[in-house]
Amino acid sequence: MRGRWTVRWVLVGLLAVATLLTAGVVLGPTRPSAPGRPAGAAAPVPATRDLDAYVARTTTHLDQVPGDWHSWAQLGMAHVQLARLTYDPAHYPAAAAALRRSLRVRPTGNAAALTGLGALAAAQHDFRGALRYARGAVAADNYSADAYGVLTDAYVELGRYPEASAAVQRMLDLRPDTGSFARASYLFELHGDTRRATQLMRQALDVATGPGDTTFALQHLGELAFNAGDLNTAAARFTEGLARTPGQAALLADRAKVTAARGEPASAVTDLRAATAVLPTVDHLVTLSDVLTAAGDPAAAARTDDLVRAGARLPGVTPASTDIDLVLFYADHGPAAEAVAKGRALLAARPSVSVEIAYAWALHAAGRDREALTHANRGLRLGTRDARAHYYRGMIRLALHDRDGARADLRQALAINPYFSLRYGPAARHALGGRA
């Protein structure tokens, strides 16, 4: 799956987010944008500039017209988006207050507020809450594409893929835009049809209406290419995205994976340091640690790992909101019991195929390989073509002395993407006796 094991709707991924349009705030995909540009490059426009202006303008309007329930809902969604762009959870209370104010003003038939509350719940990794609100929004307005977007996101993270497919088809019927094509793309990717997933992401790019949507589509096209082992196409997509949105942290981190795979660790470290200075997610920090280790700087890698551990202890990190990458980090770096505990809690909250795989790897780290194999099989039940998932299952099978099964999975991992991991790629080749 794209990137590491983050939620790919946002977030994975492709959670509904707000983009400012002339009509107000509507749901569509984007990714965090940030400074951190190379010396001499033009300063990028701050990612929150338009949203900050919108919040100020709408707040002034609501001071004068406090009964405008629709503007309260839009203000709430703007705060949800600001939280995602800035990774600042301080926006969540403001979002909740505005959305609930909208419901107080108009308690029935208020699909906009219910959709916003669903998006807020999803942003906080409460996918059951997101599902409840999205169902309410659809009941209030069966023609709301935004509501069906949140419904799709919730079903995906709850592992309810047939319902997710039906919801995204309804969204496509109502509004074939970047958000709906991207969600459909991800579902095809999960089911192993990367050709169709790529076609749909190209359609998402074709209908993009703003720089955020365009960059989002380019990034995910690049990730699809990288995950298929196509470094040239991936590099071209990431480069185009950075040309449009200079300094965008997620694109810098993605470009670093390509340069590291090409044997250019110094360039990869430069990009990753710029990315983590702005967006120090577990995903980006773990990638930086792996590149530093491969570059022969274990001390710097250890310091980066310490940052991951420190971040995991920050207030507000709960078992339900734990990132999948954090479960994998503890599985690789210990303690294994922490990985298992976090993975179990995460699976209870989000029983998706991605979480199944992460939990399987945590159980393997704890020496519980028979249980691990059950969850690894569940994680691959859709036929996802994911090199990392096959590597994990291959190593679990090897621990269970199923050498034929292990070889099949490890060969599949390297066939899907020989560059899938600086950490695991050499281990896969070693387990195969040096034969790729």
Describe the protein.
This protein has 436 residues and is an all-alpha fold. Among the domains are: 18-37 and 45-208, Tetratricopeptide repeat domain (Serine Threonine Protein Phosphatase 5, Tetratricopeptide repeat), CATH 1.25.40; 324-431, Alpha Horseshoe (Serine Threonine Protein Phosphatase 5, Tetratricopeptide repeat), CATH 1.25.40. Helices cover 68% and strands 2% of the residues. It contains 22 helices and two strands. The chain has helices at residues 49-64, 69-86, 91-105, 111-123, 127-140, 145-157, 161-174, 178-190, 194-206, 211-227, 231-244, 249-261, 265-278, 282-294, 298-312, 324-333, 336-349, 353-365, 369-379, 387-399, 403-416, 424-431, and strands spanning 18-21, 24-27. The protein has a two-stranded antiparallel sheet. The longest helix is centred in the N-terminal third of the chain and has 18 residues, at 69-86. The two termini are 21 Å apart. Mean pLDDT is 88; it is low at 2-45.
Outline the fold blueprint.
Elements: E1 18-21, E2 24-27, H1 49-64, H2 69-86, H3 91-105, H4 111-123, H5 127-140, H6 145-157, H7 161-174, H8 178-190, H9 194-206, H10 211-227, H11 231-244, H12 249-261, H13 265-278, H14 282-294, H15 298-312, H16 324-333, H17 336-349, H18 353-365, H19 369-379, H20 387-399, H21 403-416, H22 424-431
Antiparallel strand pairs: 1-2
Helix pairs in contact: 1-2, 2-3, 2-4, 3-4, 4-5, 4-6, 5-6, 6-7, 6-8, 7-8, 8-9, 9-10, 10-11, 10-12, 11-12, 12-13, 13-14, 14-15, 16-17, 16-18, 17-18, 18-19, 18-20, 19-20, 20-21, 21-22
